[in-house]
Amino acid sequence: MGADQSHLPELENFRAGQSYISFFVNGKEYNVRLDGFDPEYSPKYVLVDFLREKIGLTGTKYMCREGGCGACTVLVKSHHPKTGQEVTRSANSCLLPLYACDGLNITTIEGLGNVKTGYHPIQDRLVKFAGTQCGFCSPGFVMNMLSYAQVNPNFTGGNVEYSLDGNICRCTGYRPIIDAFKSLSSTVSEQLSRKCQDIEECYKCPLLPLNTSETKDKSFEILTTSRNLYLRDSTSGEEWIKVTSFPAVFDILQSLSYVQKRYRLVAGNTGMGVFKVDGPYSTYIEITDIPELHEISMDATGMVLGGATTLTTAIDQFMVASKMDGYVYAPEFAKHFRRVASLTVRNAATLAGNLMLKHDHRELASDVFVLFESVGATVRIGSSPTLYQNYTLMEFLDLDMTGKIIMSIHLPTYAQSYVFRCFKIAKRYQNSYADVNAAFLFNIDKTNGFTVSTKPSICYGGVNPSFVHAKATEEHFIGKQMKDALPGALQTLTRETVPNLSPPLTSPEHRLGLAQSLLYKFVLGVIRQSVQPRLRTGADDVDRGLNIGTQTFDTDKSKWPLYQPIPKLESFPQVSGEAEFINDIQSKFNELFGVFVLSNVAKATISKIDTSHAMIFASKKVLYAGQAIGLIVAKNKQAAFQARDKVIVKYENIQKPLLDIKDAVKLQLDSKSNSNVEVDMGFPCRGISSELAKTIMKNMKGSSKSGQQQHRNANHNKVEGSLKTVKGEFITRGQYHFHMETQTCLCIPREDGMDVYSSTQSIDHVQAAIANCLNIPNNSINMSIRRLGGAFGAKISKASLIASACAVAAYVTNEPVRVVLDLETNMKMIGKRLPYLTKYEAQVDDTGKIHQLISDMYCDPGAIPNEPSSLFATVVLQSCYRAEQWDLTPHVAVTDTPPNTYCRSPGGAQGIAAAENMMEHIAFVVKKDPLEVRQANFIQKGDSLVGIPGAKLTTTNPLDGMVAELKKSSDYESRKELAESFNKANRWRKRGLSIVPQRFPLHYADFRLPTFISVYHADGTVSVSHAGIEMGQGINTKVVQVVAYTLNIPIDNVKIKPANNLVSPNSALTSASVTSELVCHSAQQACVKLLERMEPIREQLGNPSWRQLVAACNAKGILLTSQCQDLQGDIVAYDVWGATLAEVEVDVLTGDYRIIRVDIIEDAGNSLSPLIDVGQIEGAFVMGLGWLLTENLVYDEETGELLTNNTWEYKPMLPADIPEDFRITMLKNTPNPFGVLSSKATAEPPLNMSVSVMFAIRNAIDSARKDVGNLEWYRMDAPVSREDIRRLALTSLEQFEL
């Protein structure tokens, strides 16, 4: 370490070089000094932080900081180091080191369009197609699409879905975003063209390039000259060296090796999004601009790809090669590479970088490595400009790479007798690492019974860290005909394939099964024509079709702007980055940043905390992993995280945690441990107080007594045939809310107390919590909230935890404090949707009618049972069915996980899922179509309602008509017959359909949501502030429509101001689907009061304009403000009815699937704003799909830590996961006589109907089980992963016939 530096001439030359970087952002040049001028700058400081914190461009968002969500996307232009041509690409600014920005031309959302200069067509189209809700993700989508469109000006609709594989949207369900961008494509469909024509100012909007200016031309000149850089962090001593030639980089590597410094070669830097804890490194060497690393050549002998070739460029080369002889693998390579990471990551990630990740992390199931190794690729490794050697990839894995560089990858060509195929089975189709990937290269003599002429290549990833080649299986095939060799090959493969157990990876059994299935699929594909026809589709991938969607609704033009289908009024600020979220508020002088220290074990006692810089919350007992132990505050974000990482917490008395609701219920039943513990079953989210909860529970018991049966329908009471017992259990597990804006709070001490900006759904709750923590009056807390970046229930009570800690820190330091949870902390610390276990025992007759039901519903509120929802779940369990002789009991089963909380349709989603699972089970037992059983049990007018003393259904059940309409419009009977025929004709591919009806009770709790209206005399414009929190549901737009309609003024004359606790004190939380309606009602009533006050002046003036009326009223001293707050009972409860048909196709061999089509019919009354309500329906449904299919939460069994705590492990839906054909119908001519202006809520009910897809999958699995002679009932819990599908389909090696 203290060696004589005279031996390091090249490194010394660099150290004497330039200490600043230059680049352009939106046409403006920035020269950033990096010689200690700003202590925050370091090699790990990334572009997104510079944009937001240093130059105030907060339109670019961040959430995951690992390249997995797309919120941080920007457009980057540079010059190709080899060709000098301009390169345009989308980039994750959260992964792009600031030090690597030298010479770049960067465009952020602010450089595209805005309210003053006008909007870009991409922004405009996204707005007009209602493609935004909370808007947090919108700038990222726009910038990604802009980048792709500039590179591919003639892009197609299919390209759109391909390009959006790295952008997550929790709100919209993607369909409107996809449609918006497809409408700009070269292959726009007639349907989308018509939609464009119907949208004002949207038709024939050309896709315009960004305007070029003299400043940008100047940047182009700068970009043409690559330069060496030496940058040093004066605080840590870390070095950043940018080199532009091979001789320079090898000299530096030699110098660093001499002094034994750890270094990192940097090109795309995307690996830091996966392996965040690699390092520490003293030196970072940027090698992106070395021309030799970008060498590409291709001829009849093979292909050479430079080590710095990006995955995107590689795909382009494979597409070229696919048209040439010898590259038998190229088409498959191109298809497979498109499923590696996301487009934005592929634009930066290099081939050599990916291979080095595999080199350093053998557990990585690298698609690049598996594919390259399968075709015998070699890598050229250099240790000097003239000293290099080619290695096989297997040799490379064991090579000490210190002082060496992957210069290039060499791919051979093969004769046409070779057959290549590759596969990837993952948790999600797009942007997900493989559970198992595989590649097969066989030299086959097709004229000799498909004889394997030479040793084949059989490669796998994801099996275990050391397993690549199935060597014994390769040997087995040599010289044999494939059909004859397969049985023995599968047995051999089974013996040599030993998957490891490594959560959160899928089980070893599943990964072994996939290895077997993929070899079988390959063989089926090769000898397709010689196998039984019913087996042939087993060879195929699950190819997804392009997304299409239709939306059908009614609107009364005579009452516009009420009921008018308009985009959200905040949409333009959202797509331009002008919409301000809490973390966009500019930093204050001396502002501090807070970071939580969390427990990494559950059920323990803290023995020691080694820090003097943290506020300590938990000094002794730890209840769950993720519990907040303390909060560290520092001068900036980087310093705070560094300080957190240095905190050492020691524990004692560590016990193994209880993590699964199944185990918790068993323990409770076995020990009766909770029999004497009374849990408050109140449900504030639905306005159910503790006392009301007790009353409801008593009523549930009372409704099962014989004395209550006098109102029963005689026909339903009649037993058809004999009674049968149907008994079972059903589990639905948790779900992370995945709001794009994590929990955030900014607290600023003021002369009168404290200004608080909290990302909360409940202003009153946060205000009271902070005042209580600080022991100060409530009127010392000034709160203001303009919008949230999504919430879904996570920010009702949990926001108070973050806000209280932030406020204490601000109070103690007397400085502004900002707390923005990083994704992993948010996921570990904050509870999720409550898991449920439902036990049921029903007495049913031959028609499936339920004559008696006993059900116990257990919810898991986590370690602290303060937010159970099982009471409401038992109410919703009734759904649309008669509930005579139903004995329902809600329970709580506590686990050692973070306290769970409300999540979109809390209790309701679990109740509906449990009810529909029972219907499936009953149908199986009585051997009826599940739809027939559901209809046989439909509730009718006059039937009792669960949980509400004396309550009965007072309206006619519309579901028979809705189901009939759904069956007709969806061509259900024909599609059902087609699916049955398809299943008979195909052993390994199955289709399934399911219709699920729903009744969702909407009760108006005692939610007090005051609305305040001000009218300005100078021009008659109106401002409104209300207590509802805008978080994507469109509440502000609906309020504006109601106010404009009631006052008979244009929409443009009304603006919504942020919610605050001065105008709206003591306000209720925003939740339960009803806030929009309640606020609209209070706004309407406030307008009515105002108009009544103005009426005498109107009569005096005759027929004045609004502006004249306002001016006259003001002159007469009439108060031009109005306020209203609804009281409980002002609005009557009602039911939301719906029916959904889902159709799926399942690959029995792998568990992969596609959702072919979904038809939803929902009774939404007269929709106040149809585009918003359609968006709510689609978004809720897709969120439900994630809960039921892909979003699996995995905990460490020993520590209780959440393992699926980032976008690498946790997989919400992406565009390729949604229904290919997505059809939404809101019933026409069905005004709601009980709702606000005849409307109904739409935010929650559609999520419940997503179970239709789960049961369509079950229907497909049933066919697969029938093929193997198994006709038994089987339990299928949620989420239903691909692993579950394969397991439940009873797929096994013994069935692999030819």
TrEMBL record:
SUPFAM superfamilies: 2Fe-2S ferredoxin-like (SSF54292), CO dehydrogenase flavoprotein C-terminal domain-like (SSF55447), CO dehydrogenase ISP C-domain like (SSF47741), CO dehydrogenase molybdoprotein N-domain-like (SSF54665), FAD-binding/transporter-associated domain-like (SSF56176), Molybdenum cofactor-binding domain (SSF56003). InterPro entries: 2Fe-2S-bd, 2Fe-2S-bd_dom_sf, 2Fe-2S_ferredoxin-like_sf, 2Fe-2S_ferredoxin-type, 2Fe2S_fd_BS, Ald_Oxase/Xan_DH_a/b, Ald_Oxase/Xan_DH_a/b_sf, Ald_Oxase/xanthine_DH-like. Residues 19-112 form the 2Fe-2S ferredoxin-type domain. It is found in: Peroxisome. Keywords: 2Fe-2S, FAD, Flavoprotein, Iron, Iron-sulfur, Metal-binding, Molybdenum, Oxidoreductase, Peroxisome. Residues 701-712 have a biased composition (Polar residues). Residues 233-416 form the FAD-binding PCMH-type domain. Residues 700-719 are annotated as: Disordered. Pfam families: CO_deh_flav_C (PF03450), FAD_binding_5 (PF00941), Fer2 (PF00111), Fer2_2 (PF01799), MoCoBD_1 (PF02738), MoCoBD_2 (PF20256). Its cofactor is Mo-molybdopterin; FAD. PANTHER family: ALDEHYDE OXIDASE 1-RELATED, XANTHINE DEHYDROGENASE. Belongs to the xanthine dehydrogenase family. This is Xanthine dehydrogenase. It comes from Orchesella dallaii.
